[in-house]
Amino acid sequence: MQDLGKKVIYQIYTKSFYDSNGDGIGDLRGIIEKLDYIEKLNVDMIWFNPFFVSPQNDNGYDISDYYQIDPLFGTMEDFEELQSKLEKLGIDVMLDMVLNHCSTEHEWFKKALAGDKEHQKYFYLRPAKEDGSLPTNWVSKFGGPAWERFGNTELYYLHLYDKTQADLDWHNQKTRDELVNVVDFWCKKGVRGFRFDVINVIGKARELVDSNGENERALYTDTPVVHDYLKELNQKSFGKYPDSITVGEMSSTSVENCIKYSNPKEHELSMVFTFHHLKVDYLDGKKWTKIPFDFMKLKQILTKWQLQMATNGGWSSVFWNNHDQPFALSRFGDPVNHREKSAEMLATAIHLLRGTPCIYQGEEIGMIDPEYDGIEDYVDVEAINAYGELLAQGYDEAQAFDIVKSKARDNSRVPMHWTRGKNAGFSHGTPWLRPTDQERINVEDELAHGEIFAYYQKLIALRKNDDVIACGGFLPLLEDDEKVFAYVRTLEASGKANARKILVLNNFFGEKYEVRIPDEFCGKCRVVISNYERDFCYLGEVLSLEPYEALAVEI
């Protein structure tokens, strides 16, 4: 696990990173133009959201050709140049593989629609029930039924996501062979990183049945056959390359399954990507609600996953942000009164955990959710559908928009803020999504006199240079404290009587707070990192933490 523990991944949402040609959409050449910025951060790998050929109904997660670069983003030559230049910087490429479903514009689906029996086996095609109702009562994760009429036939096809994203039937060996070929194609091009989108829902049963209203996700999530499929994919594609790194995005998963997905002995994936800790501001587990986050629940979830994954040989990607989440700073920090300190505290809390940190573009400069005025500012199909459903439930327009504004995926998809100027320096044209707040939050000003980017650089350097952080164990501390998330990273020191220990304290609130330090941690210490000026060398029984203070000390 040591090599994984020393790595840091940077996620680039290509569409929103930098536009080189003025069409309002970020592209591969735009990334090439910003490599000096990426180099400053000193990350090890870049995860690129899909830039394959796509109708873009779900921002590239509806792929119609896995082998070609969408002209919207550039050419294969652009990709090869980008990959080559990243390699010279010591940065690897991670591609986003969407293998649970493909676009209805993909040739496989088109051939199936045209009557090709072999390609019809690539998809879940089912007739209506005897009473004429849909094959099952499943609900799409984007809202509405999970079934759509298959052309002018009497059949329906399954789509757990948008109706233009047809679920692929992994029971069919030819389907799996095709997907192996896709991954192997990119491996042969030198790609060594793969992030597999919602990969734990590929194990749907052959016979699909109605849910009882409570067990629907269990009918298609984390089923035993997923492990078999991943072992096969590993063996036949990326597993042939010892230096490959794979991340599985796990939807509504369990820690028990994730241990198995990521334990090296199982030969499935390198690590998992889970979201339980990002649902602590969901009312009754429902995303489209708005409540303050539950800090104690957040602590409990992070602690549970850290302990169980460490104890059983699993490995996680640790993160706050990605393209499917609002910015964490707007959810768990204070972007108005304590933007810098709360951004740094959140970064510390995650980066010093056991796992491989993933940074999403913009968080390293403290970007926050956009200040949009109405639903027309959003383009994401999920947000628009949710707004309509909230109205149907009886919310008025202001209430519905307030909820959507707090949870929309487009919040983090806004263009990267490069300058304080027009369009945030992202494009000379009209951006596909409107940026806001660039006057006070942008790369140019941050690098000139900000503190958040420099703090991220320190965290990244610490992980690369300190084995306690990179591959040490995890012990929870102060589990009942209602303000501070505290833990200890430990590592047996070779040739020494005692293990090395780093105590991490994170004040998750905007007031000063006195935290009681357990006796075993009182005494001489060394400040490892802090987002305030700390130079003391002795830790007493009580420590006063500043608002949103993060402090790590070696004792």
Automatic annotation (TrEMBL):
Uppermost EC category: hydrolase
Entry annotated with the keyword Hydrolase: yes
Alphabetic keyword roster: Glycosidase, Hydrolase
Residue span, Glycosyl hydrolase family 13 catalytic domain: 11-413
Record GO biological process: trehalose catabolic process
SUPFAM superfamilies xref list: (Trans)glycosidases, Glycosyl hydrolase domain
Gene Ontology MF annotations: alpha,alpha-phosphotrehalase activity; alpha-amylase activity
Similarity comment text for this entry: Belongs to the glycosyl hydrolase 13 family.
Descriptive protein name: Alpha,alpha-phosphotrehalase
Species whose genome carries this gene: Ligilactobacillus ruminis
